[in-house]
Amino acid sequence: MPRIYVHPLPVRIWHWINAAGFVAMLVTGFQIRYIGLFNLMSFRTAVVLHNWIGFVLIGNFFIWLVFYLFTDKIRVYHPELSPMKHFRASFRQAMFYGYGIFKGEPNPHHVSVYQKFNSMQSMSYQVIMLLLVPLQFYTGVLLWDVSRFSGMIDVLGGVRVVDTAHVLIFIFFAGFIPMHIYLATLGHTRIAHIKSMLTGYEEVEDEHSVGG
Length: 212
Ligand code: HEM
Fold this sequence. Notes:
Helix content is 64%, strand content 3%.
């Protein structure tokens, strides 16, 4: 099967540090928020780990951002279709995952160098990476030192508002990660996409994809 190079090294390094970090943030976040329900570690350890890993993830985020901002690979995120067609293609893709796939229908998206994502992936990754992840980092930093950032917290409506936003996005990620892992297993083999995020190469069925 022909292979194409879809995930450059910086994206792969960012992705796996990010994945491990987010899982650790969920575990320590649960421990902090639901004391008593879990007893994996002490409250103090959970807070210290949550803060440190949080700052590592903020730094790591810039590997992804700077890579895309300064290379032409940002084209993988440019919609090639008009907004209406883009939404329709996302809907078609969602129908495939929710229904067509169980009937053995072919995937409506064909991977190529500059179209490694289907419309649904491209839209959801952009909302996640440009909105939800930065908001989570921002609210997290404010909550890390509430007295230092009290001015900003007051402007936003107080600690309760900032904390609620942080917890709501946390709940989103608790749902997103299992869904993302499930979708990542739907390649031509169970591990094909995961392998490609490790090696950089995705195996494609038609030769036309290779040139991109
Ligand atoms: C925990 C285990 C995870 C696994 C097994 C996993 C797997 C994958 C795989 C296989 C891809 C390749 C493209 C695709 O199939 O969509 C991918 C891409 C991506 N993942 Fe994950 N992922 C994980 C965690 C996360 C987390 C926690 C986030 C974000 C908070 C995330 C965000 C992304 C993004 C934004 C991309 C696109 C990267 C790009 O710009 O090229 N992933 N993931």
